[in-house]
Amino acid sequence: MQQSNDTATNIAEYLLQIKAIKLSPSNPFTWASGLKSPIYSDNRLSLSHPAIRTDIKKALALEIAKYYPGAAAIIGVATAGIAPGALVADEMNLPFGYVRSEAKKHGMGKQVEGDIQPGAKVVVVEDLVSTGKSSLQAIETLRDFGVEVLGLASIFTYGFSVAKENFFKANCPMFSLSNYDALIKVAAEKGYISLSEKETLATWAQDPEAWSNDQVK
Predict the structure, then answer these.
(1) What is the C-alpha separation between 147 and 151, in angstroms, rounded?
(2) Residue 154, SS3?
(3) How far apart are CA 196 and CA 66, in angstroms?
């Protein structure tokens, strides 16, 4: 699902402005996976900026209503998808719940939180999609729980081909408000990166693992 250029551009500019997304081709970040990367994303920072938070909430709500008109509830993915999911649910006046990476080891032992009943048609909200692995694990949990997952909505995606393949194999539609291509275009136009850095970032996107390996040689 392709978002409008205006939406993708505006969201990308917001994320750069508040440094929710940082670009550092010459001094790469290390992801939790161990991979070296010239980009780091923490979209939770948008929650501290009311105007931007509101624009993201409204944009997600509009797109969810457009692509998943049958949605009866919104589900956030713990932990980063909980806040944007709750904001969207409030905007759309829909029930909200969230899904944990694993069941609680105390109390009721729940993995799916909230008054969400089996059979409900839900949309999953994430802040970020990279490979899609963690998002799809959450979706599998929800399907096992008995709800019907209409699709996933996120604020930003790197646009990796592996993510597209993973969502296709899982038969799960998805969209993101903004993406890596829009981000790099805005970053270059607004002077966040130089031309040579833009080329480095483009190379990374083609094969992140190979790029990472080159950094540690």
Answers:
(1) 12
(2) strand
(3) 39
Identify which of 156, 195, 151 has the alpha carbon closest to the alpha carbon of residue 43: 156
Domain ranges of the chain: 5-215
Which residue reads 């994320």 in tokens?
15
For 76-131, the pLDDT digits (tens) are: 999 999 999 999 999 999 999 999 988 777 877 789 999 999 999 999 999 999 99
Element (H, E) at 62: helix 50-67
Q: Options 3.40.50.2020, 3.40.980.10, 3.10.129.10, 3.50.50.60; which CATH number does 5-215 get?
A: 3.40.50.2020
pLDDT, one tens digit per residue, over 38-57 is: 999 999 999 999 999 999 99
Distance CA 18, CA 104 (A): 34
Cα 157 to the chain's mean position, in Å? 6
Cα diameter, the chain: 54
Q: What does 10-38 look like in DSSP terms, one character per residue?
A: HHHHHHHHTTSEEE-TTS-EE-TTS-EES
In the prediction, which pLDDT does 20 show? Answer: 97
